[in-house]
């Protein structure tokens, strides 16, 4: 299991630029927003958490189509289906490796973009915490889309179309928890706990559904 995790971690970093491409895309999306809304620092501070979350969500979608593509190309996907290790566990490890290589750098880069959006320390900390808790759910959801589209020659767009609507609840509660931490009367704990529950729910459902999709596409 450790060898599989390290192998997928290396593949996620090497494929298409890996974490660097995701972080650069994240920076680009957030950096162009002030040019569109103008130099209003209060407005930037107010919309900052939502913009950082949207940028992280879009950056997460970049490499999802390659989650199982390398195994499909070199034939190791058939070995994964025939091995003694449960396929669900293998998919779960691949999701963790993909999250570590692509989403974790976005979480680490989010404080810099929070400063760029004129967010205070509380807003930056809440955004970083909610991204750390909620971004794995995006990976688990994306694993299902990647498994469905793995047999298609150009499945990248299809993965985004399948995954994006399902990630809306994660985006809503991630932004809501961040705003609740910044605005004193609003309670932070309820939306944050719902965000954790969504991540745990998709951690169970996502790998199982992806494993079923992989078996179906291989038949």
From TrEMBL:
The chain crosses the membrane at residues 12-37, 43-64, 85-108, 128-150, 157-182, 188-214. InterPro entries: Cyt_c_biogenesis_CcmB (IPR003544), Cyt_c_CcmB_bac (IPR026031). The keyword Cell inner membrane applies. GO terms for molecular function: heme transmembrane transporter activity. GO terms for cellular component: plasma membrane. It is found in: Cell inner membrane. GO terms for biological process: cytochrome c biosynthetic process; cytochrome complex assembly. It is a multi-pass membrane protein. Keywords: Cell inner membrane, Cell membrane, Cytochrome c-type biogenesis, Membrane, Transmembrane, Transmembrane helix, Transport. It comes from the Bacteria. Its main location: membrane. Required for the export of heme to the periplasm for the biogenesis of c-type cytochromes. Belongs to the CcmB/CycW/HelB family. This is Heme exporter protein B. It comes from Rhizobium aethiopicum. The lineage of its organism: Bacteria, Pseudomonadati, Pseudomonadota, Alphaproteobacteria, Hyphomicrobiales.
């Amino acid at each position: 299991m450790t060898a599989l995790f390290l192998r997928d971690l290396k593949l996620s970093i090497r494929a298409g630029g890996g974490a660097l491409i995701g972080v650069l895309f994240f920076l680009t999306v957030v950096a162009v927003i002030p040019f569109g809304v103008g130099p209003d620092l209060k407005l930037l501070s107010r919309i900052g958490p939502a913009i950082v979350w949207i940028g992280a969500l879009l950056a997460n979608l970049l490499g999802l189509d390659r989650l199982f593509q390398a195994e499909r190309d070199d034939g190791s996907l058939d070995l994964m289906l025939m091995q003694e290790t449960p396929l669900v566990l293998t998919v779960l490890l691949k999701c963790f490796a993909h999250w570590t290589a692509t989403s974790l750098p976005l979480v680490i880069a989010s404080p810099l973009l929070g400063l760029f959006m004129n967010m205070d320390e509380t807003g930056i900390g809440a955004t970083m915490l909610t991204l750390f808790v909620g971004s794995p759910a995006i990976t688990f959801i994306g694993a299902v889309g990647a498994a469905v589209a793995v047999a298609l020659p150009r499945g990248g767009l299809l993965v985004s179309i399948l995954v994006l609507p399902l990630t809306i609840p994660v985006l809503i509660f991630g932004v809501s928890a961040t705003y609740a931490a910044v605005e004193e009367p609003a309670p932070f704990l309820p939306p944050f706990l719902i965000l954790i529950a969504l991540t745990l729910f998709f951690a169970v459902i996502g790998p199982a559904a992806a494993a079923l999709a992989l078996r179906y596409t291989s038949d």
